[in-house]
């Protein structure tokens, strides 16, 4: 089974949710922006790591250390993550352009 590890989303427990609600009321907008930026940076680093892993698997295949199915799985994971990231970027740009077109 192939799992996308780009976004590790787990449902928080009741205690975690309560602590998150308390901490969110005390956050400033700048802190929230930094956390969002860190989240995006982490996601992009994971996509980059999948690309590097795919290249390493290809190199290992050339010298006979791994099977072709492992190489194909790694390359497809990297491709899907890159396509997903590209679609997120496109949607963000569309949303920004729509906001800029809005007349007040």
UniProtKB/TrEMBL annotation:
Record InterPro entries: FliE (IPR001624)
Family matches, as PANTHER family: FLAGELLAR HOOK-BASAL BODY COMPLEX PROTEIN FLIE, PTHR34653
Pfam families with a match to the protein in the record: FliE (PF02049)
HAMAP family: FliE
Keywords: Bacterial flagellum, Cell projection, Cilium, Flagellum
Subcellular location: Bacterial flagellum basal body
Similarity comment text for this entry: Belongs to the FliE family.
Protein name: Flagellar hook-basal body complex protein FliE
